[in-house]
């Protein structure tokens, strides 16, 4: 019986489409793999939590630090520790989930990280102070755990979208996923405004944080719990879909090395079904027959070191990780301290605590709506025409110029000019490296290491975010007087902007190490397609060695039989 006949399963294509038989006549498993993956390219077309804490820390100060020493303001050390804790957990999640998604599969990990986020979010909302442990310590613990879940979401969301998307619109689809970060920022700010308005009567009883006691303090305690706890709502809605998502065909092909299952999954995906169901006997037989002939190397630590030990591959990982690191130093240094920028331009203060909270929420809404959200969606609409590398390089150049202007002309700029420059910076973060650093690592690495490499790149970025908070947070207030207001409260802010300009310039240089991934298949970017610039002959060589060994063993068996 021929191999094609063995690969076929019973069932006609008229009454019920048999996905398995579409490629059963092709004996070469590598060709069957390429044709099946080509079908995908013919198809039609947790960040709330990170930024919500920016609005919550001032509320925590009123509830838990309203004493003679702190006067309703959270100590800088506690403020920094709470913000950094999420990034610390995110690093762990990005590295851990990134690796596990390559080892056990995308499907098994996708959803688990969301369960962690939901659990940790609800735990934070129910946290309270005690004599045994401070509220700061408890919140840090739960935010580290939540950060682990958020970290897992980075490589999984990017890689799963990348491996399911058609080549033509892959960038737009991945960018649309990442643009939810802007929606998360917007939701956090709008919810803060809603709860502030809801507790208006209680908040108006106090002139400032120090005077916010009794009824006002109780209202603020409820407010921060609502803002944090609300983050679990969209997670619960999305959980079902994540737990029922099928495994990506590319992972099934290249890592699980199950050509039959992957082929049926592709055809099922094209027909709007969750997954394919091949004949199990044919599937097991095919796996045994095709495994030695598959060109794609099996993932291992030795192969990982060999792959990235080559400069043509190693430089790409260096480019994605380096660009993300330099970006996040400035991005999170500003993003988690929007209130500092608002204070510098005079958008703070008020006659009552209600006005103070209201101004802070509206100010954050202005920054998000004017710069962040438009930047994300301009990027979505242009990413597949301008290209990832072009947008990233352009973004770093413009950000370098903007930070130089803010840093060196800080004291000469009016409040409106400073706001305009800051909004422009937010726009070109999103229509620039903040989007592309998420997208490119999900495309340019081979399937067997795609999630691990994306996780490593993203973790490099979060290390930059930690540095921004730990180093530049205290540096910002250097030389400030105890009761300083507005720009005087952050006398070193101009120097920090100058340093950020240097980081943007470094990000520009590392951007030249990454490839342009626009309109290229993932297989072409991984070096598996002969005749393309990225083609890696070692892959074909491995396949030839596998065929040669199989043929030589066959000759030996035939020789023994003839004797």
UniProtKB/TrEMBL annotation:
Pfam families in UniProt: Sugar_tr
Molecular function, one GO term: phosphate transmembrane transporter activity
Highest taxon above the source species: Eukaryota
GO biological process: phosphate ion transport
One GO cellular component term noted in the UniProt record for this chain: membrane
Membrane topology annotation: Multi-pass membrane protein
Broad class of where this protein is predominantly found: membrane
Protein's recorded name: Probable high-affinity phosphate permease, phosphate-repressible
Taxonomic lineage of the native organism: Eukaryota, Fungi, Dikarya, Ascomycota, Pezizomycotina
